[in-house]
Amino acid sequence: MSLSTYQAQHFAYRAEGPVGLVTLNRPERKNPLTFESYAELTALFRRAVNDPDIRAFVVAGAGGNFCSGGDVHEIIGPLLERDTKGLMEFTAMTGDLVKAMRACPQPIVAAVDGVCAGAGAIIAMASDLRVGTPGTKVAFLFNRVGLAGCDMGACAILPRIIGQGRASELLYLGRSMSGAEGERWGFFNRLVESEALAAEALKLAQDIAAGPGFANGMTKRMLAMEWAMSLEQAIEAEAVAQALCMTTQDFRRAYDAFVAKQRPVFAHD
Fold first, then answer.
1. Which helix (H) or strand (E) holds 182?
2. Is 169 exposed, middle or buried (0-12, 13-18, 19+ CB in 10 A)?
3. Element (DSSP H or E) covering residue 109
4. Euclidean distance between CA atoms 167 and 169, whole angstroms
5. Which of 81, 180, 207, 251 is the most exposed, fewest CB within 10 Å of its CB?
């Protein structure tokens, strides 16, 4: 089944042309995650790997908040009854969501408003781009509940977005990062007012989706792979990646459009 017609069970989902819109929709609780929503989100992004119809995603929250993290009653409470094996199964499952988000070729735009805490902050962090609002509060609050800040890839990804010192401050203190601070530190690509957030995030995703899909997927892949490469290795890998992109019809479409003095229209082949 194409994600263009996918029916979600544990969050809201719809396709707006080539953009998949994911909305965490438990607004009365500030959109917390459950075991079921974790699993379904992971499955969605894994399916996206083989879906050429969806070329970008937007992840948002309903009711003026992004996500308050794991549900206290439906996740945190039950975890206290698990043994080590059961706890490892849970932490592996939560990490799988980040792996799926980073492995899917489609760029993901997070539309972040209000509360963005715990696993919600991780989802925003794991997205490719983030649009926030002045009222957004992002908190990696794991240490405030007696846990380490190294959750779901935070110690690997967050320093690469905002720097080691700033990431250390947020992960040690568990304090909230304001929207203005997040934009200044580079966590947010831009800030808009709450009433403009949905349209701005969708427009950004649509602009990405209008680009060359194979090449955008390659860019996302190389951004991830080159974390662990030397400069020499990165240059060699990018040479191979770019040569592959040159074999696509999108490359020819761009050339033909340039010759005709037109704007290229990319398509998935």
1. helix 179-185
2. middle
3. strand 108-111
4. 5
5. 81
